[in-house]
Design goal:
The protein has 336 residues and is an alpha/beta fold. It folds into two domains: 1-95 and 241-336, 3-Layer(aba) Sandwich (Isopropylmalate Dehydrogenase), CATH 3.40.718; 105-237, Isopropylmalate Dehydrogenase, CATH 3.40.718. The chain is built from eleven helices and twelve strands. The strands form two sheets. A ten-stranded mixed beta sheet has the order 2-1-3-12-11-4-5-10-8-9, with helices on both faces. The chain has a two-stranded antiparallel ribbon with strand order 6-7. Helix 1 links the parallel strand 1 and strand 2. 47% of the residues are buried. The chain binds nicotinamide-adenine-dinucleotide. Nicotinamide-adenine-dinucleotide is lined by residues 16, 68-71, 81, 240-241, 256, 259-264, 271-272, 275, 313.
Length: 336
C-alpha cells in the first residue's frame, strides 16, 4: 500500500483526477490517497491557496499526484504551482513528449524529453512596479541550481539510454543569466562523455522542433523556455490532452499533466484525462511498479489506437470519465 498525496486541483482538475484514479487503481496496486485541497477555491476557507497541510502531506508521503491549479493573470495571488515547486524544492520538471499511434498530428515518431529547471529564472518571483509606468521582473540563475538540473538531465539520459542532451538558452542576449546556465551545462556535460552534448538558442530551437524534431532527444532548459517549449512539444504529439509531467526533488516527486485548469471546460466532463493518467504511468515507474506502469501505458495506447472511447480532442465523443473507464478495462485485460 502506497501513501500518496492527492491534490485534485481546480478547473477540470477534479474531473481528470477522478478518471485517473479509476485507471490507476485498475492496475491492482493499492494506494492510500491522502486528499488535500489547494488553489483559488479554498482561499476563503483556508485564508491561503497553499495551506501548510498540503506541504506537510507531500513532505510526509514524499509523493503526490496533482491536478492543475488556476493562476489569475496579471493580478491576484502568485502561482500556487510555482510556490509548491519552490517550497518543496522540486527542482526538476520532466516532460516526455512521445507520439501515441492513433493521435492525429502532423508528426510521426516524436520522442522528446523536456528537462526544465523548476525553481529560478524569471519564475523566482523577484518583480516589482518601479513606478506607475515601469515594471520589472528579475531573471536570476545560480550555478548551483543550473548544475543540479544539468546533472539531472544527464543522469536521466544515462538511465533511460538516451543519446543526446541539448541545452537551450538565449545566452546571446541574456549573457549573464543564460550564460551561467550554459556554463554549468558544459561543466556537467564533460562528466558524461558517453552522451552527446550540444547547444541551441531557444528561437532557433522552436523552429527546428517544428521542422526536424527527429534530430532532438533530451532538451535541457531554464524555467521559462522549458515551460514554453513543453507546450510546443505537446503540440507536436497532438495536444495538451496527452502530455504528462513530473516534478522531482531530492527525495520527493509530484506528478502532474503539462496542461492547466482549462477553465472553459470546467464541469463539462469533456477534456482528455490521458495527460494525468500518463503522469500516473510516470508515478508507478517512480515507485518501482514497472509492470503496472507498462500495463497502464499500453492500455492508454490501446484505447487511443482503437479510437472508440476517446474524448473530443482526439476526435471522439466520450466523456472524461468514460475514457478513464475504457483505459481501466484495458488495464484489467492486461493484468489477467
Ligand atoms: P490550459 O493548459 O489550461 O488550456 C489550454 C487549452 O488546451 C484548453 O483551452 C484546451 O483547448 C486544451 N487543453 C488543456 N488541457 C486539455 C485536456 N486535458 N484535454 C483536452 N484539451 C485540453 O492553459 P490556459 O488556458 O493557458 O491556462 C488555464 C489556467 O491553468 C491558468 O490559470 C494557468 O495559470 C493554469 N495552469 C496551471 C498549470 C498547472 O497547474 N501545472 C499549468 C499550466 C497552466
Amino acid at each position: 500500500m502506497y501513501n500518496v498525496t492527492l491534490i485534485p486541483g481546480d478547473g477540470v482538475g477534479p474531473e481528470i483526477t477522478e478518471a485517473t484514479l479509476v485507471a490507476i487503481e485498475a492496475t491492482g496496486i493499492k494506494f492510500n490517497w491522502e486528499t488535500v485541497k489547494a488553489g483559488a477555491d479554498i482561499i476563503e476557507e483556508e485564508g491561503t491557496p497553499l495551506p501548510q497541510k498540503v506541504l506537510d502531506s507531500v513532505r510526509k508521503n514524499k509523493i503526490a499526484l496533482k491536478g492543475p491549479l488556476t493562476t489569475p493573470i496579471g493580478t491576484g495571488f502568485r502561482s500556487v504551482n510555482v510556490a509548491l515547486r519552490k517550497e518543496l524544492d522540486l527542482f526538476a520538471c520532466l516532460r516526455p513528449a512521445k507520439t501515441i499511434k492513433g493521435v492525429k498530428s502532423k508528426f510521426d515518431d516524436i520522442d522528446l524529453v523536456i528537462v526544465r529547471e523548476n525553481t529560478e529564472d524569471l519564475y523566482a518571483g523577484i518583480e516589482r512596479q518601479v513606478d506607475k509606468d515601469t515594471a520589472e521582473t528579475i531573471k536570476r540563475n545560480t550555478r548551483g541550481a543550473s548544475e543540479r538540473i544539468a546533472k539531472f538531465a544527464f543522469d536521466y539520459a544515462v538511465k533511460e539510454n538516451r543519446k543526446k542532451v541539448t541545452a537551450v538558452t538565449k545566452a546571446n542576449i541574456c549573457k549573464f543569466s543564460d550564460g551561467l546556465f550554459l556554463e554549468a551545462s558544459r561543466t556537467i556535460a564533460e562528466k558524461y562523455p558517453q552522451i552527446e552534448y550540444e547547444e541551441r538558442l531557444v528561437d532557433n530551437m522552436c523552429m527546428q522542433l517544428v521542422q526536424k524534431p527527429e534530430l532532438y532527444d533530451v532538451l535541457l532548459l531554464p524555467n521559462l523556455y522549458g515551460d514554453i517549449v513543453s507546450d510546443l512539444a505537446a503540440g507536436l504529439i497532438g495536444g495538451l490532452g496527452i502530455a504528462p509531467g513530473a516534478n522531482y526533488g531530492e527525495d520527493m516527486a509530484v506528478f502532474e499533466a503539462v496542461h492547466g485548469s482549462a477553465p472553459k471546460y470546467k464541469g463539462l466532463n469533456k477534456v482528455n484525462p490521458t495527460a494525468l493518467i500518463l503522469s500516473g504511468v510516470l508515478m508507478l515507474k517512480h515507485l518501482g511498479e514497472i509492470e503496472a506502469s507498462n500495463n497502464l501505458y499500453n492500455a492508454v495506447c490501446k484505447v487511443i489506437g482503437d479510437g472508440k472511447s476517446v474524448t473530443y480532442d482526439l476526435g471522439g465523443s466520450s466523456s472524461t470519465l468514460e475514457m478513464g473507464q475504457a483505459i481501466a478495462e484495458e488495464v484489467k485485460k492486461l493484468e489477467k
